[in-house]
C-alpha cells in the first residue's frame, strides 16, 4: 500500500486523458517567457475552468488529484489539478509514453490538441510539453 497504491487510482484518469490525447497531431514544444504571457499559478480545476469559461463535466476527485472535462469554443480539454508537485510529475511520467500534448502549470495540467492548448495558455499561462511520438516523423518514443 506504499506509493504504488495511489497510482492505481490514477489509472482511470490517466487512461481517459491518454485517450483524448492519442489522436493529436505532431508538433514542437513551446517555451514560456514570451512578452505579455500570463503567469501560471496553482489552481483547482474549478478555478481553471472559470478562467477558461468552461462548465466542468465528469468531475472526479481522488486523494492526490481532481479531474474535469471541458468543451468550449476553444475546443475540448481535460483539466487536472494535483495536491503536490511530486504527484503531478508522477502523473506526467505515466502519461507521456502515451503521447499527447499537455499545458503544464504549477500543480495543474490541461490535456488537449496543440491549437486548443495554445489558446488556453493565453488564459492560464504554463508551458506546453509533449509526450512520446511528437517528433516530425512520429516514429520515436521519447
UniProtKB/TrEMBL annotation:
Keywords: Signal
Protein name: Lipoprotein
Source organism of this protein record: Actinomadura syzygii
Signal peptide start-end: 1-21
Amino acid at each position: 500500500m506504499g506509493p504504488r497504491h495511489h497510482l492505481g487510482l490514477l489509472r482511470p484518469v490517466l487512461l481517459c486523458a491518454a485517450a483524448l490525447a492519442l489522436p493529436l497531431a505532431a508538433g514542437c514544444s513551446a517555451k514560456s517567457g514570451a512578452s505579455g504571457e500570463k503567469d501560471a499559478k496553482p489552481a483547482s480545476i474549478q478555478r481553471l475552468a472559470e478562467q477558461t469559461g468552461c462548465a466542468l463535466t465528469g468531475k472526479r476527485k481522488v486523494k492526490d488529484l481532481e479531474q474535469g472535462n471541458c468543451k468550449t469554443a476553444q475546443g475540448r480539454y481535460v483539466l487536472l489539478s494535483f495536491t503536490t508537485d511530486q504527484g503531478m510529475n508522477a502523473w506526467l511520467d505515466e502519461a507521456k509514453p502515451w503521447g499527447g500534448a499537455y499545458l503544464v502549470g504549477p500543480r495543474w495540467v490541461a490535456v488537449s490538441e496543440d491549437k486548443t492548448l495554445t489558446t488556453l495558455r493565453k488564459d492560464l499561462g504554463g508551458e506546453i510539453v509533449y509526450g512520446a511520438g511528437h517528433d516530425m516523423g512520429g516514429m520515436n518514443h521519447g
